[in-house]
Amino acid sequence: MNRARIAILASGGGSNAQALIDHFAVSAAQAGQIVWVGSNAADAGVLVRARAAGLPAGVVEDPHDSAALLQTLHALRADLLVLAGYLKLVPAEVVRAFRGRLLNVHPSLLPAFGGPGMFGEHVHTAVLRAGATLSGATVHFVDEAFDRGAIVAQWPVPVLPGDSAATLASRVLRVEHRLYPLCVAAVAQGMVTLGDDGCTHGTLGVPVPPDAPELRFSLVSDPRPTSPQLSDPATIASDVARLFPR
Description:
- By secondary structure, the protein is α/β, with parallel strands linked by helices.
- 32% of the residues lie in helices and 20% in strands.
- The protein has 7 helices and 9 strands, in the order E-H-E-H-E-H-E-H-E-H-E-E-H-E-E-H.
- The strands form 2 sheets. Strands 3-2-1-4-5-6-7 form a 7-stranded mixed β-sheet. A two-stranded antiparallel sheet has the order 8-9.
- Helix 1 runs parallel beside helix 6 and helix 5 packs across helix 6.
- The termini are far apart.
- The C terminus is likely disordered.
């Protein structure tokens, strides 16, 4: 089986990139392999992580230079481009070239708390200020706008009494690290695709891990759902109490 060649773009410390690196390094039978990690910041921790894993890594000198980025990706023979905390808008030419092969993870239940300026702690601060009782992580295909592409899957995370942006961020990040590699692998295997209708099609096709019954994926037929598809609140609350004890 041909393994999909995966390139990663990240701007910061790269914990989601590390989750991807670890996932695809577990077995040669995995559907994909990381072939390059790039960052717009020369001092980004993600580059240190990549080099420590023996992966090629480099700096994207001009994030707006679509021709240079495409040249790099084509030279790598990249099949998928995966954003892992990449804070720059991917040029439209790159989005078009990688349509249906370009993924991002966002720390909220999109379409809520997404868009320009909504990244990292800004997202979690906005969630708390809005008085939301539920947040989560969303994996989606990337289009020409921030956080607007068709949703692949979502995983709900509770907002607990007394949460700060930091504690909520930590809880959401834990599920990002679980959800994102599974979604990338599903796209790499062709099990999940972006259709000509702009909607997500397919299934993640993975068993629910025995230690994570709250892993309830939400493949949606509408690329911009008005609300995430979640399990009933009582079940979520039970899982939360077990997995996130106070």
